[in-house]
Amino acid sequence: MAETIVKVNSVTANEDSSANELAKVILEDYSLTNRVLRVVNSAIFAQTVEVTTISRAIVVLGWKSIQRLVLTLKLFDSLPEGADAETVKKCLGASFLSGVLARNIANQATSAVGEEAFICALFHQFGETLVTFFLPEKQTEIRHRVEKLKKAEGPSVRRVLGMSYSDVGRVVARELNFPDLVLESMKPTPRLRNRKQPTRAEATAGIAALSGAMARVLIEEDPDAKSKLKALMKEFEGAYGKVGFPLDDLVEKSVNEFEEHAAAMNLPVSPKRTARRVMRNYSDIIEREKTEERAAKKQADAETKTERVFTDGIRDATSSLVSKSSLSEVLVVVLQTMYKGLAFAGAYRAAFLMKSPSAEELRYRSGVGCGLDDAGNWFRVSFDHAGMFRVALEQKKDLYIDKLGAEAIGRMLPPALQHRVQEDSFVVVLPIVVGSSPIGVFSIDGKGQQPLTDKHLKHLAVLRDQVVLAIRQSSSKAA
User: Fold this and answer.
1) What is the domain partition of the chain in residue ranges?
2) CATH homologous superfamily for 2-290?
3) CA angle at residue 233 from 231 to 239, to 5 degrees?
4) Using 50, 70 and 90 to split pLDDT, how confident is the model at 306?
């Protein structure tokens, strides 16, 4: 690797060098020669006429493109025997995917060149790649500190190696005579200077850092990949300007090109399997996001419908009061609104119980919902039972139990309701007190499918207050 790369970089860096000199260097490596010709004639470069010589390839593609192609192929040729194959493949896959991402991002930018961004991104994590290739035991120690000991990666790398990944990569790359642009792009987190427009070098380095971080998230199949990619793009755009690509389109295009190009170059990264695994994970995230969006919309629609029911019911009750309708008419409107308004929570019934003037008990007066056909015969609450009905009236306090446990049913509910209310049901009791006189209660119970919010309870309280006004209005008429 080192011998060929040093020669190629030296020739391309010398303005006095000729195409024949570069061709000679490549021809010295038989395997490299065959691979360069195969890639040049692949769909990547889409040549109309077959290229059969290295000299012709240099003329057709140009020095820089050939240099980048050689660097890419030699990087992936350097897999040492005995290295952790899966770890190495993941590292190589992330590097190559990073290059493809960078090229697509750069092609939308005005101050960066796609092929330059590709090679800079490819070697952005060169130091980590070298450690993974040639010091697998050190890489294992670093991973142990990060994953098992929960240490930050940067300090863990420096603790184990005595320097950062970036330092390793730049020292070796400098010895290999890499271009300054590639060396600059190996910095882990390049920052834009205080100017409005980044230079080409700054934009390229920024794109390399962005695409490197994005590729790692994708290759690792992070379950929160999309949110992390959005955060990375937002940070980049704050310093370098708009990416110019919708995230989902960028990922899909780059992963497809990754599979195509890696297969054409015969890179040891299982391109098809890697691409499918990455896209499957990302597609699952998109589908989960769509499912969450649909659920959120359904929830919002349900809340809007519930709000409309309460708003219309309160308005109708107010209109009934203004028109001086009977107490029974106001009760019908209020009970129907309470019942329909809590349909989302699985409301089972809404009932009005009135305090008996002759006995210390509450008796069913009217209601809507299930199981109330003969409620006049069974729905009675004696004050001897110190449950939530009695507490609500005596303390003049609205009570809401979101989920009744088995013990709470017997303790909180009157005997008349105990076998009619299931465990995990909700119960709301709203006392009706006029002045200091207890008049009765509203009782609403149901399945407890969703919890009631403060807003729902406030609507119920407003409806109860409408009935209090109706009672006062009825008393005034009688007087």
Assistant:
1) 2-290, 324-478
2) Hypothetical protein af1432 (1.10.3210.10)
3) 110
4) very high
| Separation CA 229–CA 235 (nearest Å) | 10
Q: Give every CB contact of residue 84 below 8 A, 6+ residues apart in sequence.
A: 132, 136, 139, 140
User: Could you write out the DSSP letters of every residue in 210-260?
Assistant: HHHHHHHHHHTT-TTHHHHHHHHHHHHHHHH----S-HHHHHHHHHHHHHH
How do residues 146-158 score in pLDDT, each as one tens digit? Answer: 998 889 999 999 9
Q: Max Cα separation, the chain?
A: 115
Instruction: Say which CATH superfamily domain 324-478 falls into.
Output: GAF domain (3.30.450.40)
Is residue 92 within 8 A of residue 216, CB to CB? The reply is no
pLDDT, averaged across the chain: 88
87-96, 194-203, 247-256: which range is least confident on average?
194-203
Q: Which residues 6+ apart lie within 8 Å of 431 measured at CB?
A: 392, 393, 396, 397, 398, 438, 440, 441
Closest CA to 83 of 33, 138, 133: 133
Question: What are the structure tokens assigned to 122, written together?
Answer: 């490819």
